[in-house]
Amino acid sequence: MAGKGTAQTRFRRSLALSLHRINLCRKGFDLHELGIVYHIIRDVENVARANGVRRVSSVTLLLGEVSGVVPDLLLDAWRWAADKKSITEGAELIVEPVEAVTHCEACGRDYATVEYGKTCPQCGSGETYLLQGQEVMIKQIETPDEDPADTVPDDPSDAVDAANPLHIA
């Protein structure tokens, strides 16, 4: 009998989750962007907790041109999800686009990925790789009471690692 109740409970949770997803889709959210927003909020919460921050006023995100993320859907999902958490309630998401750039190993030149794809426009080689443009990375987190000039830590052990902004040095 206990096993049957457990299965029913799992079914109810699964059904509730499915209905939640359907409602979000009807509101115009793409689940991909919403999932990304949940990860951003979780990372913001972790960094804020590590630094004793209770509220965030804005989050600046680097978003690559070929990341597969639709900025308008991301912003809509942010507003919906951020307002459900006290730390991000009312916080702005600032999206900074990052141009996709590809490097050609044959001729050594860089070119615009979106315009030319994987084939180098200079030499016609397919020996290319993406240099930038797939990023979805938090660049900056601001708090409401801080002036950006005052956010530089006095103690180097509290510094944010510039190469990995989510890592506290």
How would you portray this structure in words?
With 169 residues, the chain is α+β, with helices and mostly antiparallel strands. The protein has a domain at 31-147: hypothetical protein PF0899 fold (2-Layer Sandwich), CATH 3.30.2320.80. 36% of the residues lie in helices and 20% in strands. The protein has four helices and six strands; from the N terminus they run H-H-E-H-E-E-E-H-E-E. It has a three-stranded mixed beta sheet, with helices on one face. Strands 4-3-5 form a three-stranded antiparallel beta sheet.
Give the secondary structure arrangement, pairings included:
Layout: H1 2-26, H2 31-50, E1 58-64, H3 71-82, E2 92-98, E3 101-104, E4 110-112, H4 113-116, E5 128-132, E6 136-142
Parallel strand pairs: 1-2
Antiparallel strand pairs: 1-6, 3-4, 3-5
Helix pairs in contact: 2-3
Features:
169 residues, alpha+beta, hypothetical protein PF0899 fold, three-stranded mixed beta sheet, three-stranded antiparallel beta sheet, 4 helices, 6 strands, 36% helix, 20% strand, disordered C terminus
